[in-house]
Amino acid sequence: MDSFLNSSRPLIFCPGCSHERVTKVLDKVFVNLGLDADKIALVSDIGCSGLFDTFFNTHAFHGLHGRALTYATGLKMARPDLNVIVTMGDGGLGIGGAHLLSTCRRNINLTLLVLNNFNYGMTGGQFSSTTPADAMGGSGFLNKLEKPMDVCQVAASAGAGFVTRTSVYDDNIAEEIENAIKFDGFSLIDMWGMCTGRFTKKNKLTPKTIDRSLGMLQALKGPVKENKREEYSKHYYRIAEDLSPAKKPACVDAVFEPLESKRQEIVILGSAGQRIITAGEILCLAGISQGLHATQKNDYPITVLRGHSVSELVLAKGKIGFTGITSPDIIIALADEGVKRRYKMLESLDENSLIIKSKGLELPRTKAGILEIDFKAQQIKSFDMALASLSVMAQLKKVISSEMLETALSTRFKGKILESSLGLIKSVSA
Amino acid sequence: MSLSFLEGNEAIARGAVAAGCRFFAGYPITPATTIFNNMLNLLPPSGGICLQGEDEIASIGFCLGASMAGLKVMTATSGPGISLYSEQISFAIGSEIPIVIINVQRLGPSTGSATKGADGDIQFMRWGNSSGLPVIVLSPVDVRDCFTLTMHAFNLAEKFRCPVFIAANKEISMTRESVDISALEIPETENRVLFSPDSGGKSFLPFDVENGKDVPDFLPIGGETLVRQTSSTHGKNGYITIDSHEIEKSQERLKQKIESNVGDFSFFDEIIKENSDTLIITYGVTARAAEEAVESLSHAAKPVSLLVLKTLWPVPEELIRQKAAKFKKILVVEMNLGQYVREIKRIVSDKKIDFLGIMNGTLITPDQIKEAVYHG
To answer: Whole-model pTM?
Structure first.
């Protein structure tokens, strides 16, 4: 193919705009590399650099301002064989800053061409993240207050595998782009150019002054040695290949006759670290082993190692509707944090409820029956109290039996954990 | 009988994979995070892709890129993330990119309460895009629905090339429930219709719609035929257009393709009691309390009936009108301060419409619903 340019879509840039030169050079690069049109996807950002996709006969994806790298990443992961080229201005660069940093860190094989012309051309020459402080533009004095960003330094320190700083007018620009596309990892070219419609109307900028300014900055060209590493999609697929397939959800057979015929509501009140939620799950599995349906609704704060942990469990013969609990049949109370969380509920219990509580724990005045267990005297640690309480329930033949509890533990645990939990439930005395 | 014990989020993830989802990207947020955890467990070992974006905007952006490469994609978040998705959702609507979006709603506004449920985003999901064009929103009641409605969501996203939301809720997504997986009513999997050069010998135009159809045929970016995708207002060739006639036709089509077909996917449950003159209309987790209220009143002098909507958007107007016809009074119950009741009032304007809405981080109870039935 001798050109990828779309003859039905002539270039529409302002006279003298450096984007026109980039378009033509990019076309030459595609030809030189001998790429097939269907192996190129051009992903364009917003503003004048967002027009690029229309000028080429390749796959094209034009999306929202600043988000081009996000689509390009999804596309490249889905189709690692495509050459994905992203065009973005200094505007998109600023608004999509988080995406730039992450793409550099990922080192995914995309080529990002930053068409850096120091302002938002399309919206009226407002300042961007690369506008010099002394420039005149569409944002009044505001650009004087901000330091322009050195895209290349940012990209290199964020982990980009390939970073090149150049002028659009550089004689070797085609070769630079070719090298970037050939690079197996994330490559970025910061190409400085002129926005004749806006920026150069108020600011002196020529290919010569661009060269002079670039000459004062640290030169960056090509692979960044310290960022050399495996390309992201290759790395992903290499690790994924060795992963074992996910297991199907465990099934529990109904092997016992149910102990209760009416809906049973159980609440476990504890604190973080007491394995309250695991105990709730075990109780539900023991319920399922008698052909009951079960729901488990948990309540805990956003912190992990501190605060209350409450598990609300419903077991019933048929389908369970409402999963909330208003008048529980059994309450297991193991810590102040949980008790405080359900204080009102505890106060309103009637004599049909049974509370299994850890010795020393203070409860509000209640009509419910209370069974106090001295876990400490039985040398049961705080994190085993919830499971030990299930064993107390089983010994009292409340809702579950010891056989059901053992079945549930064998479903949930294996090896040493199973052994120690079976040992624990046998060691508890009600 | 043999039952598994899963939370709604795991059922959503497994339903997605069963529907053919091959790409997931998300950003952690309670109460949606366990969907990400499950997808990470399910997808990579089977050749699928699961990514964590740097933020919500990136996560949905990854999905849109992968969807245009032809993969079935899903993302999951909660209200704060839906706010960040908003512009990408508008893009997916206007540019007809299939995507399933799980919104595990939590108590708002804003950061709100990470571990409390609510149904506060019902109108937000419908109207949270620029242009106001319609989306599809399905609302699960339990773990079974989480599995099967997610599968339907994929089918609808593929069929209509649009974003489809699952309006979940912390109280369904993070509640574990026993479920007989083998007894689920699994829908047949549907895929987007691919353009075939044999059909009429026409060359491919990315947004060309054949006569009698309302959705353009698809070809993936990366295939032999060159494909254009654009967020700009476009003609059928995928290039920007200023032709007002073409724009009008395409905007109208984007609306019609969703709204005129709702009869084909109006999912619902009902409990109709003889001699009742009140119909409760609700959705989501609240349906479970409503069902208990209705059953416990079944021997009362005046029993009540129940309609549980599982398709919320587009509003299944025909279904609602037809089901409401024989009742004198409607009671709408929802975990917010009055969102879907607006639609019911609009559709069933000739009846007395009562409303019960509570948004305080707790479930609405069967007793509160019974109270509203008699004293509302």
So the answer is: 0.97
